[in-house]
Write a structure and sequence with these properties.
Length: 316
């Protein structure tokens, strides 16, 4: 089992950093030279995956796995898999055809260092690597369940579909369709980010539960999966609202990426639609909802309560 986290926020952040560091070690071990793998491709993959980051999604896998108190659980392959998916999505999001960013996690983006073609291929390789890791690391049933959840969370009805919606509201040529109204509402924005950001967060929590119960040759009960899904929906939206606020109020040095770019591009954001103060209140409400849900999972889920509070108070 993972180290328990007290209510003290400093202690929580300390343990998060410890877990993130362990995740980095496992990520590095997963990304080693294999027969037939071009050296330059591996360099691009490692450059993007091992860049300094919060490791939110793999930490969620670990915390959800720990919430049920089972010994002999191995959440690390699932944690690596979701971070590979996340890293691939960032590589592709940063491309000129998408968000056109030149800075990510305080460093030049992958395509700025390795060129657009190799960046695309590095993202493709990480996408497929995620499913390879899951399939070879768990028993057939648990591995299949993990692959299914990750495919749903990352695919056309999840993260990728949310990215399409994001580009559509930005007005990218060839993206906006007849089904997009001219005027956005808060519900449009929530639906967008429930997929673009929230889908992979919810998947991370479900993967943690699946691998935890797999250690007992069981599958997680549907009611527990639903609580985790609802919790993930709330922290996913809280995370995005805070990200939008940081893009308006944050500093480039602490954010690790260019700030103010959403407004420049006319993106659909919470501050743009609700204003800064209402966006802050929404983030707090989402945090409280998440904490109430996590409290239903028992004492081992206390770190999930602390995490929700941190997500709305962070500066990067």
């Amino acid at each position: 089992m993972l180290q328990k986290i007290s209510k003290d926020q400093d202690n929580f952040l300390s343990v998060w950093k410890t877990l993130a560091s362990k995740v980095d070690t496992h990520l590095s071990n997963c990304l080693q030279q294999q027969e037939g793998m071009p050296v330059r491709l591996l360099e691009a993959m490692r450059y993007s995956v091992l860049a300094p980051g919060k490791r939110l999604r793999p930490v969620l896998v670990l915390l959800a796995s720990n919430a049920f108190g089972f010994e002999n659980t191995n959440p690390w392959p699932a944690a690596c898999a979701v971070e590979f998916i996340h890293a691939y999505s960032l590589i592709h999001d940063d491309l000129p055809a998408m968000d056109d960013d030149d800075l990510r996690r305080g460093r030049p983006t992958c395509h700025k260092v390795y060129g657009e073609a190799l960046a695309i291929l590095a993202g493709d390789a990480l996408l497929t690597k995620a499913f390879e890791v899951l399939a070879k690391s768990y028993p057939p049933l648990a591995g299949a369940e993990c692959c299914l959840e990750l495919a749903k969370g990352a695919g056309a009805s999840g993260m990728v579909g949310g990215q399409v919606e994001d580009l559509a509201w930005e007005g990218k040529p060839g993206v906006r369709g007849e089904d997009h109204p001219k005027e956005a509402t808060i519900q449009h924005l929530k639906n967008l980010h429930d997929r673009k950001t929230g889908a992979l967060i919810r998947t991370s929590l479900k993967l943690g539960a699946i691998v935890s119960f797999a250690s007992q040759n069981r599958t997680p009960p549907e009611d527990l999966l639903q609580i985790l899904d609802n919790y993930g929906q709330n922290i996913g939206l809280a995370f995005q609202v805070t990200d939008d606020l940081l893009d308006v109020l944050g500093k480039c040095e602490s954010a690790g990426k260019r700030v103010g770019k959403d407004a420049q591009k006319g993106k659909l954001t919470y501050p743009g639609l609700l204003g800064i103060e209402q966006s802050k209140l929404l983030a707090v409400d989402l945090c409280k909802n998440a904490q109430n849900l996590a409290s239903q999972l028992g004492p081992n889920a206390a770190p999930l309560i602390d995490l929700a509070e941190y997500l709305v108070s962070r500066d990067h």
